[in-house]
Amino acid sequence: MRYLASSSHDIRTNLAIETYLMEHADLTEPILYFYINAPCIIVGRYQNVKAEINQDYVDAHHITLTRRTSGGGAVYDDLGNVSFSFITKDDGDGFGNFKRFTAPVLKALHAMGATGATMSGRNDLLIDGKKFSGNAMHVENGRVFSHGTLMYDVDQTQIAKALTVPTDKLASKGIKSVRSRVTNLKPYMAPAYQHLTIEEFRDTLAREILGVADLSQA
Questions:
Q1: For a 10 Å CB count at each end of the chain, is N or C smaller?
Q2: What is the pLDDT of residue 169?
């Protein structure tokens, strides 16, 4: 597996890189791609933007808004989040098989102390009953990517302000607010991993997934 980490914090650039890799990269072996975004909202391919975001708040706080090619719901990212993407050939057992792509991430998180992290439902990763990762996929021309978020130290106060979650959706899940549904991984990590910069968290996670001591070997 090859490894790539974007140096950009612009979600538009990072998604463009992902699209390029999906369409043009040599996928003789799969690619593990990591990126970290400045405050932004990424809506799913089929979502109604006006129904998902607080436009006035997004404009006032200069939060970048973009749309991804995969489905799923709207997510808020900032510099406390790491996004990952597995890009590979579609062998017929990829699309829809979120467990296949999240398993190595969960294994790495367990090794870093977050032993309660687990997959729930079709495409969410939870710990202590709260979501820290949403995942989505896209397949095209014999290729597939599966990407997801990892909330390490996200400013959770911004999520409910920037996103508009229908009250009927919250009620159906028996919860009071979007903040009660999500959590950061940081407090669940082993002490050695609770004071990392977001880049250190990304690199440590990557080394665990790839099984290398030095990412220059990846």
A1: N
A2: 46
